[in-house]
C-alpha cells in the first residue's frame, strides 16, 4: 500500500514516516512535566549534598567537596555521551526513557542511604569529624552508585528533552509552525527556570526542616512522577529514528587523514578536482590551515574511492571538504574554549560557601525568614535570570549608543568581561571569608567550628550575584561564539563544548582542593581547607582562585589575539542559504538542542 505523502516529513537525508495522529500540543504536558520534575529532583539534591556527606558519612570538608566536584564533572560529561547515543544509535525517546529510569533508580538508592541505618556510619553525637567512625567500603559503594546512576540518567534526559519536544511540533507545512515552536521554547525555559528555583529553595528547606529521609524521599517521588508521566505519553509521541552524529563525522576525518598519510599534498593553487565534495557544495577545496587533515578529503584513486554515483565508497577512507572544515572549525576554537575552564572552577565553589553560610546569621531580616544554607545559590540564579531577561531589551540598546555596534559588546568582549567579573567574585569571596573568620576568632570560636558567628550571611550575596553575572556574560557568550564560528549543523557542538568545559572545570577544582589540602597540612599544620573553618584559611584558598582567574584573563587575551578577527570576510562560507526551509529546520533543531538555554546547561 502506498503511503500518503502528507504522513511523511523529511529529516536529514531520510524520510521519517509519521501519522498525523502523533505528536502535537497534546504531548507537551508529558514532555514539560518530565523535564520539570527531573530538574526539581536532581538539582535539589546538589545544593545541600555537602552537608549530608559531612554529617552522615563523616567526610572532611575537602573530601566531601572533591566527591561533589567529581559528581558534577560526570554529570556534565554524560549529556555528551547521551547526545551521541541519541543521534547515532537509539533515538531520543529511548535515551530519555532509559535516563528517567536510571535517574529514578539512583535517587531511590540515595534515599535508601538515608532510610537504612546500616547504610551510613554510626552517629557522631557532636564529636569532631576526625573522631567519628569512617564509612565502610559497602556504604561508600552504595552512595557512589546512587550518584553515578543519577549522573548517567541525567545524561539521557538533559540533551534530548527539549529536542524531543520540538520533534512533536515540527511541521514545516504549517505556516504557524515557527510561532508554535517559539511558544514551546518559551514555556520550556520558563518551566526549567521555575523548577531550578523550587529545587534550590523548597527541596533544600524540606531537607533542613524534615531531615534527610523525607528530604531525599520527595525528589525520588518527583522522579517517579517524571518517569510515569513520560511513559504515559508514549503512544502519542513522534519517535524519530537516529541520524548520523557529528562525532562520527569527526572520527571519520581523523581516521581518513591517517589512512591517507602516504599521499603527498598538492600545491596551494591546485586543481579542485582532486578534492572530494558533494554536488552543489560551496566548499570545493580545503583551507590551508591544519593541512595534514586535508588528506582526509583528497581523492587518491578515483576508481577505488568513488562509486558510480560520485559518492565515497568508504566514508572512513574519504571524507568531504565540508567534513574536514567542520573539524578544523572545532579545533580552531579550542584555545578560547580552554579559557572557560577557570570560570567553571569559580562557578563550582558552592560547597564551601554552604559551609560558611551554615555558621552565619541566615535571617533575611532580623527575626524574619531564615534562609537554608544550601539555598544561597538562588541569588546567582536570580542575577543570571535578570541579566538574560534584560540584555537584549534594555542593555544592548544602551550599550549600542556607546559602542556603535548593534549588539553592544562583541562576543569576545562579553566572554572577557565575564572572566574579569569572576576574578572580582573570587576576590570578594576571599575578603568576606577573611572578615567572617576574624569575627569568629574575636568571639572565641576558634575551637568551635559549629559556633554561630555574629555576621549576616547576606555578606555572601555579592559573590553569588557576581558569579551569576559572570556566568551570564561568559557562558552565554561562549555558546553564541561557537554558534557564530560553526555551520548551523554543528551548533549543538557548542553546547557540548560548554558542558565539557564545566566537566573539566570540576575536575580542576578537585585537583586544586586536593593539592591545597595536602600541601598546607604538611608537618601537622592546619590545612587551609580544614574541617574547622575558623582555624583553616579558606580566604587564602579563594585568593589562590583569584590569582589563577587573573592569570586566565591574560591567557584569554592571548587566545583572542591568536584567534584573529571574527569579521565576516574571514569566515568560511558554509553550505547554508538564508531563508531556506532547511535552514529553518536546522535553526529550530539547534534551539531544541539548547543553544539558547544558558540556565539548562550552566547548573
TrEMBL record:
GO terms for cellular component: membrane. CDD domains: MFS_NPF1_2 (cd17416). One of its GO terms (biological process) is oligopeptide transport. It is a multi-pass membrane protein. PROSITE patterns: PTR2_1 (PS01022). One of its GO terms (molecular function) is transmembrane transporter activity. It is found in: Membrane. InterPro entries: MFS_trans_sf, POT_fam, PTR2_symporter_CS. The chain crosses the membrane at residues 67-85, 91-112, 187-206, 212-238, 371-394, 415-432, 491-513, 540-561. Keywords: Membrane, Transmembrane, Transmembrane helix. Its main location: membrane. It comes from the Eukaryota. Gene3D superfamilies: MFS general substrate transporter like domains. Belongs to the major facilitator superfamily. Proton-dependent oligopeptide transporter (POT/PTR) (TC 2.A.17) family. This is Major facilitator superfamily (MFS) profile domain-containing protein. It comes from Gossypium mustelinum (Cotton).
